[in-house]
């Protein structure tokens, strides 16, 4: 039987999860050790298609600040992290930028947008 | 001379939350003083996500978190001064500050909220032997260079200290193309959150060397390498265990110190364990009318806890201005017992507790299958059982006002005892 031990990263609590393959259950896996629903979702995702939220910066043409912080609006496949950094580092943005504004649409065909994580007026 | 009802020193998450809460509690005339060129404090350089799960019920990056508070502060029309440095404060709540626009400013205020945060311990504080080349940074300095100024600080990196900032920087440097050779930790356990070990080190196969330290630094102009050695149970390097790591950059993530130069000027009593002001249930320091909150009081792991604590400081500063705080209440102390390093607040004036009060504390070591016990004399008030307690994770115990006002309550002791889950 496939059994995985993972530490949940959904919140700072860091629950130790045990994920077991179980064809009879609705999602194909059972999760133990979680203290919330999101932990169970994370556990299954982590053994089927692990994803991570990427945070980085892009070049900003402003007197006030050299870099604009950005974040993916949701997790992208873990395997695409380094490749997405290459794309992110080729972007240059001019203010004004609003928090939440899309900087790269559908990053590497993941279906996830990269958005600005702060407002820069000028 | 300018006069205000409340002046908040520091425009980071603590100062912003305190000022907003003071306004919500009916104080009109508030000023926030910030020495950086913008509000938001250290969160502006903490571009990673994971902030705000408790306060906003969603996962935000540092800049997103602070922007919510900055927007609210501006919407309320609370006055703030940027690029302004407070030079002096005194016990009578006189403030002297300076900036390039107003020059030297004299301010008189009814209440002060100290929210200056903390500083990083530098190389000098841990006395690593060796040469003094370029390429040695505190982790927070490197974070600012990379995330705000736009400089890549190095390509081959060793990180000393496995607190959260060190772990976050290991991932950040890796994503930006650097090779992180190792994270070196003196203690037998990491000082950071487990989830940061998973997503910052394990995800990128970065080794975490527990019970190791750096015993030599090599290089003349630029750092060329560090010598890492194992340590024994007394944290002394074990001869013969040295391994040299070639690197051009060393990041130090070796702890934070609350920034209390101003507190000392006002003769505020400092707790030798937290290095921050001794505070009571209202987050008021030993000097009447001077409050403190956030990392200037004790170093937090989660900004949501800073926000909660600072809202309380803001609310109580407002009460003080309105003369609603009782000075002559029955007072009890909180006493760290076996296995507990410190407790904040250190004093509780029982009559000022409205509904409940939360005690924040840290344990001294890793304790497995243990419980945290709150006692009043022989009587146990609360017990919290856990599979594991760790010094890197702040613990809290909430006490209801009714439990405090029940009969003759004495000093409250919190200790670690055997017998958890």
Total separate domains of chain B: 3
Residues in β-strands, percent of chain B: 25-35%
Distance between the termini of chain A: 58 Å
Count of alpha and pi helical runs of chain B:
9
> What's the total number of strands of chain B?
27
InterPro entries (chain A): DUF1667 (IPR012460)
Pfam family, one (chain A): DUF1667
Organism (chain A): Anaerosalibacter bizertensis
Protein name (chain A): DUF1667 domain-containing protein
Element layout with pairings:
The complex is a heterodimer of chains A (122) and B (421).
Chain A (H helix, E strand, L loop, with lengths): L2 E5 L8 E6 L7 E4 L4 H12 L2 E2 L2 E6 L6 E6 L3 E2 L3 H8 L3 E2 L8 E3 L9 E3 L6
Chain B lengths: L1 E8 L3 H12 L5 E4 L15 E3 L8 E2 H14 L3 E3 L3 E5 L4 E6 L3 E12 L3 E3 L2 H4 L9 E3 H11 L6 E5 L3 H12 L3 E6 L9 H8 L6 E2 L2 E7 L6 E6 L12 E4 L2 E4 L3 E3 L2 H5 L24 E3 L10 H19 L9 E6 L3 E5 L2 E3 L6 E8 L3 E10 L2 E11 L5 E6 H4 L7 E7 L3
Parallel strand pairs in B: 1-2, 1-8, 2-5, 8-19, 10-17, 11-12, 11-17, 12-13, 20-27
Antiparallel strand pairs in B: 3-4, 6-7, 7-8, 9-18, 14-15, 15-16, 20-22, 21-23, 23-26, 24-25, 24-27
Helix pairs in contact in B: 1-2, 1-8, 4-5, 5-6
Task: Write up this protein.
The complex is a heterodimer of chains A (122) and B (421). By secondary structure, chain A is of the alpha+beta class. Chain A folds into two domains: 3-48, no CATH class; 55-116, CPE0013-like fold, CATH 3.10.530.10. Helix content of chain A is 16%, strand content 32%. Chain A has two helices and ten strands, in the order E-E-E-H-E-E-E-E-H-E-E-E. In chain A, the strands form three sheets. In chain A, strands 8-5-6-10-9 form a five-stranded mixed β-sheet, with no helix packed on it. A three-stranded antiparallel β-sheet of chain A has the order 1-2-3, with helices on one face. Chain A has a two-stranded antiparallel ribbon with strand order 4-7. The radius of gyration of chain A is 18 Å and the shape is elongated. With 421 residues, chain B is α/β, with parallel strands linked by helices. Chain B has three domains: 1-120 and 256-325, FAD/NAD(P)-binding domain; 122-254, FAD/NAD(P)-binding domain, CATH 3.50.50; 329-421, Immunoglobulin-like, CATH 2.60.40. Helix content of chain B is 21%, strand content 34%. In chain B, strands 1, 2, 5, 6, 7, 8 and 19 form a seven-stranded mixed β-sheet that branches. A five-stranded parallel β-sheet of chain B has the order 10-17-11-12-13. In chain B, helix 1 (13-24) links the parallel strand 1 (2-9) and strand 2. The longest helix of chain B is centred in the C-terminal third of the chain and has 19 residues, at 303-321. Chain B is globular and about 65 Å long. The model of chain B has no long low-confidence stretch (mean pLDDT 95). At the A-B interface, strand 5, strand 6 and helix 2 of A face strand 4, helix 2, helix 4 and helix 6 of B. Chain A: It comes from Anaerosalibacter bizertensis. Chain A: This is DUF1667 domain-containing protein. Chain A: InterPro entries: DUF1667 (IPR012460).
């Amino acid at each position: 039987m496939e059994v995985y031990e993972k530490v949940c990263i959904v919140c700072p609590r860091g629950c130790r999860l045990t994920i077991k393959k179980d064809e009879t259950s609705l999602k194909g896996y059972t999760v133990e050790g979680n203290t919330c629903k999101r932990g169970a979702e994370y556990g299954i995702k982590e053994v089927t298609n692990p994803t991570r939220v990427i945070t980085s910066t892009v070049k900003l043409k402003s007197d006030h600040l050299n870099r604009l912080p950005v974040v993916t609006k949701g997790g992208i496949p873990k395997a695409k992290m380094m490749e997405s950094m290459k794309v992110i580092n080729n972007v240059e943005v001019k203010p004004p930028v609003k928090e939440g504004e899309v900087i790269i649409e559908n990053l590497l065909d993941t279906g996830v947008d990269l958005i600005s994580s702060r407002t820069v007026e000028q | 001379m300018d006069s205000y009802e409340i002046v908040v020193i520091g425009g980071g998450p603590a100062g912003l939350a305190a000022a907003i809460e003071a306004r919500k509690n009916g104080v009109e005339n508030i000023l926030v003083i910030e020495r950086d060129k913008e509000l938001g404090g250290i969160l502006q350089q903490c571009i990673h996500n994971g902030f705000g799960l408790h306060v906003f019920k969603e996962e935000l990056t540092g800049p997103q978190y602070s922007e919510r508070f900055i927007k609210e502060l501006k919407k309320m029309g609370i006055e703030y001064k940027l690029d302004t440095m407070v030079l002096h404060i005194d016990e009578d709540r006189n403030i002297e500050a300076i900036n390039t626009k107003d020059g030297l400013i004299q301010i008189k205020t009814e209440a002060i909220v100290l929210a200056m945060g903390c500083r990083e311990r530098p190389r000098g504080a841990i006395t690593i032997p060796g040469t003094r080349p370029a390429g040695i940074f505190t982790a927070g300095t490197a974070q600012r260079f990379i995330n705000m100024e736009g400089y890549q600080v190095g390509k081959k990196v060793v990180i000393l200290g496995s607190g959260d900032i060190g772990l976050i920087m290991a991932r950040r440097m890796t994503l930006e193309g650097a090779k992180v050779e190792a994270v070196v930790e003196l203690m037998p356990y990491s000082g950071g959150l487990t989830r940061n070990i998973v997503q910052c080190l394990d995800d990128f196969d970065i080794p975490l060397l527990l019970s190791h330290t750096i015993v030599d630094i090599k290089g003349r102009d630029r750092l060329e390498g560090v010598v890492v050695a194992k340590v024994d149970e007394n944290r002394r390097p074990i001869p013969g265990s040295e391994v040299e790591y070639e690197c051009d950059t060393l990041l130090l993530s070796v702890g934070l110190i609350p920034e209390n130069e101003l507190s000392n000027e006002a003769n505020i009593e400092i707790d030798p364990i937290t290095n921050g002001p001794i505070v009571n249930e209202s987050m008021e320091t030993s000097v009447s009318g001077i409050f403190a909150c956030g990392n200037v009081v004790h170093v937090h792991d989660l900004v949501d806890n800073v926000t909660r604590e600072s809202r309380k400081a803001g609310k109580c500063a407002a009460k003080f201005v309105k003369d609603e705080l009782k000075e002559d209440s029955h007072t009890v102390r909180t006493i760290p017992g076996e296995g507990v390093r410190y407790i904040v607040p250190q004093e509780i004036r029982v009559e000022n507790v409205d509904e409940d009060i939360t005690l924040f504390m840290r344990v001294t070591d890793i304790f497995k299958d243990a419980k945290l016990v709150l006692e009043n004399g022989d009587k146990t008030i609360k017990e919290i059982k856990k599979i594991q307690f760790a010094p890197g994770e702040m613990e809290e115990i909430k006490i209801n006002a009714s439990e405090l006002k029940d009969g003759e309550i004495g000093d409250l002791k919190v200790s670690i005892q055997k017998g958890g889950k």
